[in-house]
Amino acid sequence: MKIWQADFYRRPLQDENGQVLWELLICDENRQFTYEALCPQSAANASWLTSQLQIATVNQQPDVIQVFRPQSLSLIQLAARSLGILVEPTRRTFALKQWLKARSYPSQDSYDPIALEQPPPTPLPENLWGQQWRFAALNAGDLVDTFSQRPIPILNMPEFLLPINLGLASTISVPGVVIDGGRQSMQLARWLHNAYPVALDYVAGSPSGLVLTAGLVDRWIVATFEDAEVTTSAINYTQRKQLSKGLHFLLVQPDDSGMTYSGFWLLGDI
């Protein structure tokens, strides 16, 4: 599958008439292919973008264009749709973000080309709450085999997050969170699948909580707690994530029988 990554957004640049400029950047996952173009803000629309994609795809056409910026997403979707190209929203546009950070823009000290506004976390809808949850851990060497061979309806294990590809020793303990969803288990798993989970973090406070980072900028409060024992477990969870290079997991199941699972995700602070 041929994957491109794209960003189309206003920059701290102006043309000779003082009009703000928008910049289109496109690259593949290895930056062996790159394409860039500028346009004045008055022309920054789906029609201009479509014409640029037509030029960029003269000799090759991707199967998917990945987009990390919410403000770029709808325009790129409109332009790509006319060419029959799928668009995937994802934070993990590593090559594109590296390229953006390496570029020189005016006011570089105050301008971060990959920064996105993060809204405050929102509680999960009440109808998705599980019966109970807990911290867990598995050795890196057992993680893939434990879940890859199970008949799990929703299974997300990206190649770049596999322990072997992160260079983790098989004995490293990979932390995770297990949610017993009861009757809502499958409904919760489907909701998570559509939300594109990225990471699940412990946030200290009054109360403390688990916050799910998902989609492009979304954050969701999965659980809150003040219990000292749970807080200690949460601190251990965070420390284990540091040792596992940010790798962790989320498992949703109907109950704790270990017989059936609804969804499993490898997550990463990457």
From TrEMBL:
Residues 3-103 form the RNA-binding protein Tab2-like N-terminal domain. Pfam families: Tab2-like_C, Tab2-like_N. InterPro entries: Tab2-like, Tab2-like_C, Tab2-like_N. Residues 112-267 form the RNA-binding protein Tab2/Atab2 C-terminal domain. GO terms for molecular function: RNA binding. It comes from the Bacteria. This is DUF1092 family protein. It comes from Aliterella atlantica CENA595.
